[in-house]
Amino acid sequence: MKTDSELSFFSQVYEVVRLIPAGRVTTYGAVAKAIGSPGASRMVGWALNQSSDKMPWVPAHRVVNRNGLLTGKFHFGTDDKMKNLLEQEGVKIEDNKVVDMQNIFWNPIEEIEF
DNA sequence: GAGGTGACTGCGA
DNA sequence: CTCGCAGCCACCT
């Protein structure tokens, strides 16, 4: 009998990240907490790493670290790729970090609100 | 089955 | 203010 493997840790990360509206950003800790693991911030990044192999596309560029710094920009292929994507969404980037990040910060817990 | 890794976070010196 | 360490959980070899 098949279990809820589709509802595993990773899948929840993908769903939450995909729910992020354009022009908004979130943090790994927020997503981790939203899925019920506030300390598993690392897993969120790991899940996004696998997201490249998942479909549909996951807006991992909308997920940044607590400082609003584009820590995962290096995994997008090119450094300007993530920055370009965010600017394309309307998010301003300066020195590889989000500008007014707390202003455009999107809290999944408030939107999901289990 | 066990060990190592990792796109993070928070606190202490 | 800057640097370092420990905690966290799932995937990969």
In words, what does this structure look like?
- Strands 1-2 form a two-stranded parallel ribbon. The chain has a two-stranded antiparallel ribbon with strand order 3-4.
- It has six helices and four strands; from the N terminus they run H-E-H-H-E-H-E-E-H-H.
- Strand 3 and strand 4 form a beta hairpin.
- The longest helix has 11 residues.
- The N terminus is likely disordered.
- It is mainly α and 114 residues long.
- It is globular and about 35 Å long.
- It binds a DNA duplex (13 and 13 nucleotides) through helix 2, helix 3 and strand 2.
List the helices and strands and how they pair.
Elements: H1 9-18, E1 26-27, H2 28-34, H3 41-51, E2 63-64, H4 79-89, E3 93-94, E4 97-98, H5 101-104, H6 108-112
Parallel strand pairs: 1-2
Antiparallel strand pairs: 3-4
This protein binds a DNA duplex (13 and 13 nucleotides) through residues 8-10, 27-29, 32, 37-50, 60, 63-66, 70-76.
